[in-house]
Specification:
Oligomer: heterodimer
Number of strands of chain B: 11
Low-confidence stretches of chain A: none
Number of helices of chain A: 0
Mean pLDDT of chain B: 93
Shape of chain B: globular
Largest sheet of chain A: 7 strands, mixed
Mean pLDDT of chain A: 91
Largest sheet of chain B: 6 strands, mixed
Distance between the termini of chain B: 40 Å
Helix content of chain A: under 10%
Low-confidence stretches of chain B: none
Strand content of chain A: over 45%
Distance between the termini of chain A: 37 Å
Helix content of chain B: under 10%
Radius of gyration of chain A: 13 Å
Shape of chain A: globular
Number of helices of chain B: 0
Strand content of chain B: over 45%
Number of strands of chain A: 11
Chain lengths: 116, 113
């Protein structure tokens, strides 16, 4: 089956620093990748959609200058949380969709970000 | 704006019981609906995906139904086991080129040994 990995799985950082999270599709080419965020006891919320080689499309209320997304290749997308603050602490999950397996998104294991 | 609601929010049942989890969505113009399992602090495991043209999907002890016109889906778990304990998430994908999923808050399920 299609496998998506994320790195790191957990990160703790000080307020004001930037954190980069990687999302990789291991055995398929992901034409589209998605970034979701999940706060405690809340549902997953789509943050942005990125297509390889083009700018990401952000959902309403998500600051594009704060959450930088780069989808430079068909197997890698990165999310950089710039100048992180405690309110950015959350569970970030990526998913990837193949142009061939177009019906389904495959999710990564998530990254737990804690900003002190 | 699509909203997804899951009922109940939490459920605790003895091992061996059959159970039903409910999901409703406000915009019936969906492309597909997907049920996931999420264990504490972990990512998502896809359980079943139902296309908008389908009525149900089955995998082992799991059966998911879809009534698109009424905006409802159910996940039926037969002969529940303690290993089924997890949070179950329902998500819909809208049509019209929008690929992102809209999730419900989930049902936290505990199967008592």
């Amino acid at each position: 089956g299609a496998v998506v990995s994320q790195h790191p799985s957990r990160v703790i950082c000080k307020s004001g620093t930037s954190v980069k999270i990687e999302c990789r599709s291991l055995d398929f080419q992901a034409t589209t990748m998605f970034w979701y965020r999940q706060f405690p006891k809340k549902s997953l919320m789509l943050m942005a959609t990125s297509n390889e080689g083009s700018k990401a499309t952000y959902e309403q209320g998500v600051e594009k200058d704060k959450f930088l997304i780069n989808h430079a290749s068909l197997t890698l997308s990165t999310l950089t949380v710039t100048s992180a603050h405690p309110e950015d602490s959350s569970f970030y999950i990526c998913s990837a969709k193949s142009g061939i397996l177009y019906n389904e998104q495959f999710f990564g294991p998530g990254t737990r970000l804690t900003v002190l | 704006k699509q909203e997804v609601t899951q009922i109940p929010a939490a459920l605790s049942v003895p091992e061996g019981e059959n159970l039903v989890l409910n999901c409703s969505f406000t915009d019936s113009a969906i492309y597909n609906l997907q049920w996931f399992r999420q264990d504490p602090g972990k990512g998502l495991t896809s359980l079943l995906l139902i296309q908008s043209s389908q009525r149900e999907q089955t995998s082992g002890r799991l059966n998911a139904s879809l009534d698109k016109s009424s905006g409802r889906s159910t996940l039926y778990i037969a002969a529940s086991q303690p290993g089924d304990s997890a949070t179950y998430l329902c998500a819909v994908r809208l049509g019209g080129g929008a690929d992102g999923l809209t999730f419900g808050k989930g049902t936290h399920l505990i199967i008592q040994p």
